[in-house]
Design a protein that fits this description.
The protein is mainly alpha-helical and 125 residues long. It has one domain. Helices cover 81% and strands 0% of the residues.
Amino acid sequence: MPAPAPIVDVIAVLVFVLIGRSSHAESETLAGITRTSWPFLLGTALGWLLARRRGRELSSPAAGLWVWPTTVVVGMLARAASGQGVDAAFVVVASAFLGLFLLGWRLVGGLARTRLRRSGRRLRD
């Protein structure tokens, strides 16, 4: 059974945070990880709410088109409001990484589901 979408999204955000903190030689304490991740996790949760309000299944690519930009925008606004850095290069890197991870798994899953359905139809014919 595949993992529920929220679990995969949270893992994606945490991987983003851990890679970022590691690349900047920041400590990987629970407090540091929490401080860096909460703005993006807040954005991800709001993205889920928006996607569900639009009737999207959270594992669908269409939901990812809500989750990804909401994660980035809310994450950056919350970082700025809490006194964390939000320079242009970081916004670009975060947008690219989170887009790849929050949309990527949904697109791969969608393609796999499509292929399974097609192969199932051929088997029944």
